[in-house]
Amino acid sequence: MAKEVRLFAEVRAYSIITLGVFINAIAWMGFMIPSHIVGGGINGISSLLYLSTGIPVAVGILIFNTILIILAIRILGVGFGIKSIFSILMMVGAFSLLQYFIHEPIVKDRFMAAIIGGILNGVSIGIVFTQGGSTGGVDIIAMIINKYRNITPGKVILYFDVCVITSSYLIYQHIENIVYGYVVMAIGSYVVDLVLTGANQTVQIFIFSQKNELIADTVVNELKRGVTLVKGTGWYSKSEQDILMILMRKTELPYFFRAVKAIDANAFMSVSSVMGVYGQGFDVIKVR
Questions:
Q1: Which of 3, 83, 254, 264 fits a disulfide with 211 by CB distance 3.0 to 4.6 angstroms?
Q2: CB-based burial label for 276 (10 Å; 0-12, 13-18, 19+)
Q3: Phi and psi dihedrals of 274, rounded to 5?
Q4: Contacting residues for 126 by C-beta, under 8 A, at least 6 apart
Q5: Residue range of the domain that includes 137
Q6: What is the mean pLDDT of each run of 10 residues along the chain (288 residues)?
């Protein structure tokens, strides 16, 4: 049962990463690049290369990310992310496919294309991040710099994106292209945070059941979450009652509910959101 759950989780993760990558390709090839809007990152550099020389975007993404992956393996080690490599390869395929079929912007209005492109770009990056993947590019540069300098990855990505978007002036000689690029960057950053916050939200659960031992064993062995047993006393009945306290990601709730219902359909549960949980299995405390 546990092996099947883990296998399903891995297949689900790679499927979601693939979906996120295709959404990213639609954002660029369907809205931004046909409208001559340059975003940030390696995709932005690749789109600049395409718009100035005609070299396909996918070729630029593959070349730049291959160089960065080699550097990352040498500097950060081989464990920096199999899912990241998978994401990059899927991105190359998605951009190649969509560039073959899409030649005109999906929407004609450039400002609307910038807004929709920024939203889709942010959603796609957030989706990939939630599954432990990465879109490569500037993320890798940020990790490498952060290893040797006390500069946060967020600042590295921001500075890099500003430089890429500003450089689009060399091609178009119009300030409005830079403004559209900044719109994409701002919307994308906001949406990424929105997606990540929603996916990482943690819930605290209290369970009152006559089958606490079975529920606790299932949570520990199958869902791989810790359980705390709290001794309580019912004020009205004056009888002692064991209470289970569990912390887990909000995305794990459907599996948890199914497991509890199979054991005790009459279990009484209280579920509440918490601001943050730090420690093993959850978030890491980051202090300078």
A1: 264
A2: exposed
A3: -120, 155
A4: 20, 191, 192, 193, 194, 195, 196, 199
A5: 2-199
A6: 71 87 90 85 86 86 85 69 80 87 85 91 83 72 70 69 84 82 86 71 87 89 86 82 86 85 88 74 58
Our count of domains for the chain comes to 2
Per DSSP, what are the bridge partners of residue 208?
Answer: 243, 268
Which token pair is 73?
């393996």
* pTM exceeds 0.85 for this model: no
Residues 90/96/101/107 CA torsion (nearest 10 deg):
70
Alpha-carbon distances of 86 from 18, 47, 91, 186, rounded to whole Å = 9, 21, 8, 27
- Dist. CA 19–CA 15, nearest whole Å: 6
What are the Cα distances from residue 1, in Å, to 8, 148, 217, 227? 11, 44, 13, 20
Number of Cα atoms under 13 Å in the Cβ half of residue 228: 9
Are 263 and 138 within one domain?
no
Please check whether residue 223 lies inside any domain of the structure: yes
Residues 231 and 122 in one domain: no
